[in-house]
Amino acid sequence: xxxxxxxxxxxxxxxxxxQAPGAxxxxxxxxxxxxTEETAATAAGAQAVCVFVNDRLTRPCLEILRGTGVRLVALxxxxxxxxxxxxxxxLGLAVTYVPAYSPHAVAEHAVGLLLALNxxxxxxxxxxxxxxxxxDGLTGFDIHGKxxxxxxxxxxxxxxxxxxxxxxxxVIACDLFPSFDWARVHGVTYxxxxxxxxxxxxxxxxxxxxxxxxxxxxxxxxxRMRAGAYLINTSRGGLIDTAALIAALKEDRLGGVALDVYExxxxxxxxxxxxxxxxxxxxxxxxxxxxxxxxxxQGFLTREALDQIAASAIGNLLALNExxxxxxxxxxxxxxxxxx
Length: 340
Ligand code: NAI
Description:
Blueprint: E1 3-6, H1 11-19, E2 27-30, E3 48-51, H2 59-68, E4 72-75, H3 85-91, E5 94-96, H4 103-119, H5 121-129, E6 147-151, H6 155-166, E7 170-174, H7 180-186, E8 189-190, H8 193-199, E9 202-205, H9 219-224, E10 229-233, H10 242-250, E11 254-259, H11 281-288, E12 292-294, H12 303-321, E13 331-334
Parallel strand pairs: 1-2, 1-3, 3-4, 4-5, 6-7, 6-9, 7-8, 9-10, 10-11, 11-12
Antiparallel strand pairs: 5-13
The structure holds 1,4-dihydronicotinamide adenine dinucleotide.
Residues 78-79, 103, 106, 152-157, 174-177, 206-210, 212-213, 234-236, 260-261, 297, 299-300 line the site of 1,4-dihydronicotinamide adenine dinucleotide.
């Protein structure tokens, strides 16, 4: 039986992993702290580590893991911008991820944020709880008939596009690899990034964070957006240059911004700071804007998604245990596990 050290875990992780089929075949050590260069040595005695979005698997961190005898880094998320894959490859470490868990979980959250932000549902909730039943300041707009721009039409972007098409929005999209057949079926039109940026009333981001997409929403991009446009980011915080976003918000050029991710979220999101001093001035500034809605990276947080994440990650951990091939489509680096 192999030992697996889990990092950045919460009660819902322990529940979904504890209940996943096959979990009894693994010895699991759950840590609440994150995996970093400083904490990597705690993996000693484990053959695999299971990590999440804000664990930082830099080269020095991976070197320490290799030194402790770890053979597999099993990500329990779809993004993998937090792992130095080149270093993992050189060190012979296997790295797997969960590319295909419920895209609906994230797409539905993106649209949910848009609806709440547009109709001021979060403000209305506070008002009615205080017995204030006035409506002034709560005016939104119909999504029907508006232009919704989808940046990235992978699994999540396509699900979001279909929901927005269902509202009667005109959906336009951009992607490095357009899915023309899918677009035809759902009435989606592809255009280049600049056209999507400048013609959309609503923009929702679904590209991964890569060197090419980092800060794709910078000062220039904000200046190209329609006045009063809404921006939704449930992908990765690094897609947006937060300083440029704050500048655009201060100039009052955006209608609303909903963020489930934030570029400096590591160490803050997933934690309770209600009785502590928030040291991040940019996040504090964002939270002070009336038309900004922030959730703390909860797009994935549905029962279905958690179960699928656990099943996929456990499948790969069992594969390591039994020295067989990892699940198809989940391997970022094979390490020594190339044979089926
Ligand atoms: P995917 O890999 O299915 O789709 C990504 C799409 O982006 C692909 O079609 C790709 O061609 C396109 N793309 C990549 N670089 C591009 C560029 N420079 N310009 C235009 N298009 C580009 O990924 P999926 O499953 O749709 O997930 C998208 C992202 O959502 C993930 O990378 C992850 O960062 C984020 N995510 C967030 C979650 C949350 O809880 N908020 C949960 C799961 C994923």
